[in-house]
Amino acid sequence: MRNNVPYVLLKYVMLHGLTRGSHVVDLEAVVETFESPAEQTSAACEGNSIVEPNVGMEFDSEEAAKHFYDEYARQEGFIVRLDRCHRSEVDNRIISRRLSCNKQGFHVRSRNANKPVHKPRASIREGCEAMMLVKVNRCGKWVVTKFVKEHSHPLNVTCISSYDRMMVSKDRKIQQLTKELELRDRQCHEYRRMLLSLLETVEEQTECLSKKVELVVNNVRTLENEVKKPLNTD
């Protein structure tokens, strides 16, 4: 069993016999699902080239879609920015993600008058609208629902500046941290669901046990009353 599974939950489950025979979810299986996802990019490749994204293209996961668009961007000569996402109102998991060119939008200067004035850093944003939008369908697949190919700036396949390399490293770090936070969020949600299920099961078993105890007490009282009755000597 993995070390990051809540020990209290595991101990309680084992002590009360609520492991594999119960409707409580198998914690080990849940952790395996979180930590060992079979994430394979389903996008087709032609030789060593990445095919152009198209509406309807499917991926096994958000991470697979990101990986595909990263490879496509590297091939075409631009850098991917992890853009906004939309979360489910039911369990707060991400159900859509926009992947944009890193030159998307425009730099917004701070309007804080009390903030110290520094020499403005050159902005790489040029209002580029190139992007790929993926959403989760009912089957759990991530599907491309929108793709904008055209960039508002020249693409450079062979040369990436040191600043762009730094931005690539920064964006990848952000992606890694975002993925880790999403994983922890999913784990917390699942642990909460399992705990509620566990408490519900304990409550049901306690109620059942109380009824059995009450029945035994009633039977004992009935037996005592029978014993106390005077014997018929006729």
From the spread of the alpha carbons, the general shape counts as: elongated
Number of strands: 7
Helix content: 40-55%
Uncertain runs are 1-5, 12-43
Give, in order, the helices and strands: HHEEEHEEEEH
Beginning-to-end CA distance, first to last residue: 72 Å
Radius of gyration: 30 Å
Tally of alpha and pi helices: 4
Organism: Clitoria ternatea
InterPro entries: FAR1_DNA_bnd_dom (IPR004330)
Pfam family, one: FAR1
Protein name: FAR1 domain-containing protein
Lay out the secondary structure:
Layout: H1 7-15, H2 27-35, E1 45-46, E2 49-50, E3 58-59, H3 62-76, E4 80-87, E5 94-101, E6 131-136, E7 142-148, H4 162-228
Antiparallel strand pairs: 1-2, 3-7, 4-5, 5-6, 6-7
Helix pairs in contact: 2-4
Description:
Strands 3-7-6-5-4 form a 5-stranded antiparallel sheet, with helices on one face. It has a two-stranded antiparallel ribbon with strand order 1-2. It has 4 helices and 7 strands; from the N terminus they run H-H-E-E-E-H-E-E-E-E-H. Helix 2 packs antiparallel against helix 4. It is elongated. A hairpin with a 5-residue loop joins strand 6 (131-136) and strand 7. The chain folds into 2 domains: 1-36 and 161-225; 38-108 and 121-159, no CATH class. It has helices at residues 7-15, 27-35, 62-76, 162-228, and strands spanning 45-46, 49-50, 58-59, 80-87, 94-101, 131-136, 142-148. With 234 residues, the chain is an alpha+beta fold.
